[in-house]
Amino acid sequence: MQQNEIAQVLFSKAKTFIENRYPTGWGGAAVLRTVNNNFLISIAIETCNAGASLCIETGAICEAHKLDEAVTHSICVVRDSEKSEYKVLTPCGICQERLMYWDDVYVGVTDSDSPLKLVPLRDLQPFHWSKAYDKKDMEFYSNR
């Protein structure tokens, strides 16, 4: 599949999930694609204490680790209400770090020129700290 086809599949799965899980009001879901072509979906946990909340992608990231499958693509989609348009949210810095574990991940980004765009995660952080190390030194983390 080409990147634009993968983006469409990710977005469609997120949108369908949101419409079913959140028929009214706000809704959000993340969809991650793995190297085995599995699609993992997660939502933000609902909590009264904002300090205990987690990003929308976190559940699917944990699931990928549990399954021991590398993530190849990630998208986070939200809407403000059932009448609102859907938005793609660029991963926050913490989720970028979580996804960087797999190194070569394409992520959905917020882009006013293109409502649905995937870019390599490394493009979001061109000066990422991992560049201070040889690739072989970083393999310890990604080959566990």
Automatic annotation (TrEMBL):
<dbReference type="GO" id="GO:0003824">
    <property type="term" value="F:catalytic activity"/>
</dbReference>
<protein>
    <submittedName>
        <fullName>Cytidine deaminase</fullName>
    </submittedName>
</protein>
<dbReference type="InterPro" id="IPR016193">
    <property type="entry name" value="Cytidine_deaminase-like"/>
</dbReference>
